[in-house]
Amino acid sequence: xKQWNRALYPFEDWYFLHDGIKLHFLDEGxxxxxxxxxxxxxWSFYFRNLILALRGSYxxxxxxxxxxxxxxxxxxxxxxxxxxxxxxxxxxLLDFLNVKKNVTLVLHDWGGMIGMAWAVRHPECxxxxxxxxxxxxxxxxxxxxxxxxxxxxxxxxxxWLVLRWNAFCRGAARWxxxxxxxxxxxxxxxIAPYDSPxxxxxxxxFVQNVPLGPNxxxxxxxxxxxxxxxxxxxxxxxxxxxxRDFVFDPTFLATWRRHLPxxxxxxxxxxxxxxxxxxxxxxxxxxxxxxxxTQIIPSGA
Length: 301
Description:
- By secondary structure, the protein is an alpha/beta fold.
- The protein contains 12 helices and 8 strands.
- It has a single domain, classed as Alpha/Beta hydrolase fold, catalytic domain (Rossmann fold, 3-Layer(aba) Sandwich), CATH 3.40.50.1820.
- Helices cover about 40% and strands about 15% of the residues.
- An 8-stranded mixed β-sheet has the order 1-2-4-3-5-6-7-8, with helices on both faces.
């Protein structure tokens, strides 16, 4: 792993070993659990400031998906990188940590699909949702897959650019913020785990595994989750959305509004996909106020 400013990430490392593969996670603070799930190509570092703000009152559990961050980076012969396996990983980790009630999920990017797939397995465990530029449903009909994702998902050239030149991570660090460029230390930390082609496999597999249609692995999970989102209408929900996200654009937000019409929505007109980088202090305040003002009501009640 390339050198990076560890002072930005002042947390104790924990590891969960399953099937010979180590999953790295953070477990900070005490109280009702808040499970934060990152997407691609970020890692638990993305939630660092939210963890610092909340760990005095809550138990913040923040895993790195296998192949990401400080978790092991196995090859395809040892890990299948599927959506189902990702959900199973989360389920095993939370079972190991005995996290079974009053869970608040904080979801970004692929973390939304993984987290909500776990949530529909265990609706009685979920009490609140915080949604940050993500999805838990198929690509909206009016939305086309951006060309950059199409290239990486469907072509040998795209795969080569992701693996050999780290184009996906570097491009995300440049184009997923819109208010201001990332600080150099933050940029380096976000990219640091992906310092060789072998360490970028999960980044590529996440893109290649985007389920767009019925013939794609994981599409059945996506459709099942979508069909059950209405079960979470009573679940207090905060949606903070960067409106300049070129992937999870306002069409995704409109879909969330249809599924969860009672959610509180805060739009950030000048922010992109990395909303916690673009509008970190504002989002942290919104989350703190939301947690303080909402009563825990398990969705299965």
